[in-house]
Amino acid sequence: MALMGTTEPGAGEAGTSEEKPFLLRALQIALVVSLYWVTSISMVFLNKYLLDSPSLRLDTPIFVTFYQCLVTALLCKGLSTLAACCPGSVDFPSLRLDLRVARSILPLSVVFIGMITFNNLCLKHVGVAFYNVGRSLTTVFNVLLSYLLLKQTTSFYALLTCGIIIGGFWLGVDQEGAEGTLSWTGTLFGVLASLCVSLNAIYTKKVLPVVDGSIWRLTFYNNANACVLFLPLLLLLGELQALCSFTHLGSAHFWGMMTLGGLFGFAIGYVTGLQIKFTSPLTHNVSGTAKACAQTVLAVLYYEEIKSFLWWASNMMVLGGSWAYTWVRGWEMKKVQEEPSPKEDEKSLLGV
């Protein structure tokens, strides 16, 4: 059982992928994409149940997030131990809690905590159908922060797609307000989640060398740090006291759902890497956009909601803008790769 993160995506498949029959490779890709969709959509609906279910009435979003981090950290450590005991059967990096490494990763862990906490708080206050629109500004923040922090400029066409996303976001907020279902608190958490997702992507690249480029080591340290940092928050916000008076605290069903949420949180990292490995980063982004569309439709059907034409138009603007941004960036990267370098131009002019 090989888990992603120990090697570069696709490194082990590069030599054999061309030898596989087309039908077999197409079936593999279909299964991997389906696994990503099922895992991601199931995680969103399960988290919505844990965070805002009328049957549970559990108002402890920080504890839910803390428990999911705890499950992920324990799973990483467990797989690392299993890999050490059964070499060759399980491919997972060795994990040892080094306090110096944990301190080096701490700034990223703070951003990571903000990302997962604001994601869950957004989901708690808004419906699953609006969840995608509420967190749709990630691409916009990517462009803005890339310029402010990395001094990277963005093309006009990419900025145009960001404009479409912003327009879809505001139209979605307007239509939620018109239908009387808008939560400004949830929308604010969604914007903050988008900001943290962008910051997390930028700082992850800077911190990866500290953990020898291993995504799983970074996942372990991030979640271990998060477990420690969440403890004072649980005390300050009174969630431990609320948990003590929770009527389903001794329910096996409740803890089963909580643990399943943690398993999904761990699994989404694996299936994301798996999808990139069998397709490409560009295809993964397109798949994520299509998944968000399917998730929105499923949410409207499951919760028996009736939405206006403009509400659907806002979703299509966000999804269309996200897809267009992915396509534009992919086209620009391909164009750069195809352009000859200045040295090659000099050689061709000299006839070398």
Tell me the fraction of residues in β-strands, as a range: under 5%
Helix content: over 70%
Report the sheet with the most strands, covering strand number, pairing sense and barrel closure.
none
Count of runs of 4 or more consecutive helical residues: 13
Mean pLDDT: 88
Low-confidence stretches: 4-17, 348-352
Q: Tell the overall outline.
A: globular
Question: Which structural class do you get from the secondary structure elements?
Answer: mainly alpha
- Span of the ends, CA to CA: 49 Å
Helix-strand sequence:
HHHHHHHHHHHHH
Radius of gyration (CA) equals 22 Å
Protein name: GDP-fucose transporter 1 isoform X2
Task: For this entry, give a set of tags.
76% helix, 352 residues, GDP-fucose transporter 1 isoform X2, 13 helices, globular
Topology, please?
Layout: H1 22-52, H2 61-85, H3 99-125, H4 128-134, H5 138-150, H6 156-178, H7 184-207, H8 215-236, H9 239-244, H10 252-278, H11 281-302, H12 309-338, H13 342-350
Helix pairs in contact: 1-3, 1-10, 1-11, 2-8, 2-10, 3-7, 3-8, 4-11, 5-7, 6-12, 10-11, 11-12
Give a written overview of the molecule:
The protein is an all-alpha fold. Helix content is 76%, strand content 0%. The N and C termini lie far apart (49 Å). It comes from Echinops telfairi. This is GDP-fucose transporter 1 isoform X2.
